[in-house]
Design goal:
This protein is an all-alpha fold and about 230 residues long. It has one domain. The protein is about 75% helix and about 0% strand. Helix 8 runs antiparallel to helix 9.
């Protein structure tokens, strides 16, 4: 029984939340998000005035983003228990979770490039900054697919007792829906659907972190029950 390895992978979800938030939010200062209406000179000033903090904080966030992969791996193991040998939802969850990790990493690279040469033309720094925010928030699709796959697997689980409680299925689907407004940031520079707005940024951000913490607790229970069943 590989329960210790599974618990370690589940803990990576908490590790991601801590490292990404600490680096991206507290150190780099990317929360609140840069306003879409900021002028190029103002955006360049942010990178020029806080170059060291941004470089270090974004690097920490990048390291944290990699921890999403083992977390997706242990989720796939538990989803496979629900489905059996031919586990379509488990494969979908693992693939979508791995793509989610990439989506988290690419913006950190873009923001790091912007901070690498803060003396470059402000318009170029503005472009990199815009690209980073769009890549982070507008590409919600893989995370949406990942959560819907988990939700459908949980709701179709007929094992007794179920691997995850039934409410976890509804929880995953609702969190997936909360990420959909991110697809609208291309149309808005102000308001709740802008990349710094309530519906496109704040609600998805809080939901994203909360999802990792909830799923970590649920995974621990499932792994421990699996270990107890294997020891009988």
């Amino acid at each position: 029984m590989n329960s210790r390895a599974q618990i370690a992978c589940a803990a990576c979800g908490v590790g991601f939340a801590v490292l990404f938030i600490a680096g991206w939010w507290w150190i780099a200062g990317f929360v609140p998000a840069h306003a879409p209406l900021m002028e190029a000179a103002d955006v360049a000033a942010v990178y020029g005035d806080h170059t060291g903090r941004i470089r270090f904080g974004i690097m920490l966030a990048m390291i944290g983003a990699a921890l999403v992969i083992p977390f997706a791996g242990v989720l796939a193991v538990q989803v496979r228990r629900m489905e059996g040998e031919h586990s379509v939802f488990a494969a979908t969850e693992l693939a979508a979770g791995s793509v989610t990790a990439v989506i988290l990493m690419v913006p950190t690279v873009l923001w790091s490039v912007a901070a690498f040469r803060p003396e470059r033309a402000p318009e170029l720094i503005l472009l990199l900054n815009d690209f980073g925010w769009f890549f982070l928030l507008m590409t919600f699709g893989p995370f949406f697919v990942q959560l819907v796959a988990i939700g459908l697997a949980v709701l179709s689980d007929r094992s007794t007792p179920p691997v995850f409680p039934r409410w976890v299925g509804y929880f995953n689907i609702w969190v997936a829906v909360l990420f959909m407004p991110g697809g609208l940031i291309t149309f808005f520079k102000t308001g709740p659907f802008a990349w710094n707005g309530l519906l496109a940024f704040w609600i998805p951000l809080v939901s994203f972190v909360f999802w990792f913490l909830v799923m970590f607790a649920v995974l621990l229970g499932a792994i421990r029950r699996q270990a107890a069943e294997g020891a009988r």
